[in-house]
């Protein structure tokens, strides 16, 4: 449960950053019309800003690249399914996908964590998590 909450916090921070980036881009003339809810650019921005912080946090916590990429894939499977169904049915799914994306990605995250339960039950080492990234220890 703790790992799920940590990853949700990382995803929420990504959503917050995405919100501020979207506000800044919509204020410009060049990107104001291209980067708005309901466009492919906005959808892809959401995907990136919700997924990358989760992957980064998993790497910082020592879960490794393989499991981090698997988590990203698990988060993207429900969104991809929605996109495929939307394209096949020719519906205007991009606009409502903005609201459905976060819960869909959270569902994928929870499913992966249940499937790979043993990875998230391993106790993490105490201390500075950035030490694993090659930072020298403090003296």
Can you walk me through this structure?
There is one protein chain. The chain has about 140 residues and is mainly alpha-helical. The protein has one domain. The chain has 6 helices and no strands. It has helices at about 1-25, 30, 40-60, 65-90, 95-115, 115-120. The two termini are about 35 Å apart. The mean pLDDT is about 80.
List strands and helices in order, with pairings:
Layout: H1 2-26, H2 29-32, H3 40-60, H4 65-88, H5 93-115, H6 117-120
Helix pairs in contact: 1-3, 3-4, 3-5, 4-5
Poorly predicted residue ranges: none
Tally of domains: 1
The total beta strand count reads 0
Global outline:
globular
Fraction of residues in β-strands? under 5%
Largest sheet: none
What string gives the helices and strands in order? HHHHHH
Would you tell me the structural class of the helices and strands? Answer: mainly alpha
Average predicted confidence as pLDDT: 82
Helix content: over 70%
How far do the termini sit from each other?
Answer: 34 Å
List the total number of helices: 6
């Amino acid at each position: 449960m703790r790992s799920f909450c940590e990853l949700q916090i990382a995803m929420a921070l990504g959503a917050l950053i995405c919100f501020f980036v979207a506000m800044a881009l919509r204020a410009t003339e060049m990107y104001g019309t291209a980067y708005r809810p309901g466009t492919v650019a906005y959808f892809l921005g959401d995907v990136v800003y919700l997924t990358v912080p989760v992957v980064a946090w998993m790497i910082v916590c020592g879960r490794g690249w393989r499991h981090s990429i698997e988590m990203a894939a698990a988060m993207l499977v429900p969104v991809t399914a929605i996109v495929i169904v939307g394209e096949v049915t020719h519906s205007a799914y991009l606009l409502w996908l903005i609201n459905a994306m976060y819960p869909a990605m959270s569902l994928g995250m929870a499913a992966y964590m249940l499937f790979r339960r043993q990875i998230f039950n391993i106790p993490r080492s105490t201390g500075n998590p950035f030490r694993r990234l090659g930072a020298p220890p403090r003296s």
